[in-house]
Amino acid sequence: MLIVADENIPLLDSFFGDMGEIRRVSGRSMSGEDVRDADILLARSVTRVNRELLEGSRVRFVGTTTIGTDHVDLDWLEQAGIRFSAAPGCNANSVAEYVLSVLSLHAERRGLSDWSQLSVGIVGVGNVGGELARKLDRLGFDVRLCDPPRADREEDNEEFVALEEAMKCNVVSLHTPLTREGDHPTLHMIGNAELETLGANQLLINAGRGEVIDSSALLARLEQGNAPVVVLDVWEQEPRIHPELVDRVWLATPHIAGYSLEGKVQGTEMIYQALSQFLGLPVRKKAGQFLPEPALSKISFTSSAEEEDAIRIALRACYDPRRDDAKLRNTMAGSPEERGAAFDRLRRDYPVRRECSSLKIQLKGTSKSLQDSFRAIGFKLKI
C-alpha cells in the first residue's frame, strides 16, 4: 500500500510506517502525478483536494490533519466513493493559548493591572472558540459568544449574541470556518461596515480563516484615524500575503496559531485512528508516547510573585508571538513569489513549540487565585 503524505505532517513514520510505503511530497505543489498510484492521501490545508488532484488515481482514503475542510471538495470525494476524515479540534488548545499570549501582551501594552478587565467577543464557537471561551471564563473575563448557525440550531440557548454586540467588546477574536453559502456565510463577514464600528481602544484578532476579513477593507480602515489594533495569524491570498497589511497590523504571524507540537501530533493521531478504522486495523499508538521531553520543564514562583507578572512570565515562556511576528516581517522584501516561498518556509521549518501542559509550575506560598489561574490556562502545578 502506498501512502502519499504532505512532508510537513509530523511523526509520519511513527504512526503510518507499518501500514505501507510512505512517499513524502510538498503539500503546496502536490499534483495529480504525485498521487496517481497512491492508495492513501494524507494532506494539510495547503493542498487543494479535488477532482483535478485525484481523478484517475487509486486513492480510496483521504485524511487531512487539520481542523478545517474548506480546501477539500467533500461532495466530489463522496461521489467518487473516497472515504474522508479530518481532525476537528486537534489544535484547539494551541490556538486558545496563542490568543491568551496575545491578550497578555495587549493588557501590558494598555497598562492594565488585571487582564480580565478586558471583555472578549468570540465569533465562532466551535472547537477552538469553545476552548478559548472555557479558559477565559475560568480566568474571570467577560466573554460574549457569537455563532449565528449555532444560535439558529439552539433556539433556547440565550448565551449567543449578535455580531454587532460581540464587536462592542474590548477584544474581538475570530474563530469561524470559511463558508461561502448558506444563511450565514463567513466570506468577508468582517468588511467595511463592521470595521468602522471598531475604534483605537479595541483589539481584533483573526486566528481562524484569512478570508473572513476583507483585507482591502481592513487595510483602508487601518490607514484612517482611530483605527483598531489588529493581530492576524491568517491572511487572504496565502502564502503571497499583502506586505502593506503586514506593515499596518500590530502583530503578524504566518498561520501558526495552531502549530504547537501537541496540536500537530494530535492531528496526526486522529487521522491514524480514522485510517486504522477504515482498514480494519487495531489502534495501538497514542500521541503521548512520541512526545519528546520539553526544553523547559519547570518554573518556580514564591509568595512574593505578583499574579499578573507570574502569568505573563509563564505564558511567554511557552509562547511569545512577537518572535513569529519578527520572522514574518523579515520576509516581506522581494517579489510576491519570494514572499510566498518565505511564508511557506516559516511554516515548514517552524520550531518546536510546546503547550502550557508541558510546563510544570512550582508554587511556594502563592495565593489560591494564582493557582486557579494557572490551572485555568492549562499548566501543571506542583504546590
From TrEMBL:
Summary of the function given for this chain in its UniProt record: Catalyzes the oxidation of erythronate-4-phosphate to 3-hydroxy-2-oxo-4-phosphonooxybutanoate.
Major enzyme class: oxidoreductase
Binding positions for NAD(+) per the UniProt entry: 147, 176, 233, 258
Enzyme Commission numbers on file: 1.1.1.290
Protein name: Erythronate-4-phosphate dehydrogenase
Residues annotated as binding substrate: 45, 66, 259
Domain of life (superkingdom): Bacteria
Pfam families: 2-Hacid_dh, 2-Hacid_dh_C, DUF3410
Gene3D superfamilies from the UniProt entry: 3.30.1370.170, NAD(P)-binding Rossmann-like Domain
Residues annotated as domain D-isomer specific 2-hydroxyacid dehydrogenase NAD-binding: 113-257
Family, per entry: Belongs to the D-isomer specific 2-hydroxyacid dehydrogenase family. PdxB subfamily.
Keyword Phosphoprotein: no
GO BP of this protein: pyridoxine biosynthetic process
Residues annotated as domain D-isomer specific 2-hydroxyacid dehydrogenase catalytic: 32-279
Chief localization: cytoplasm
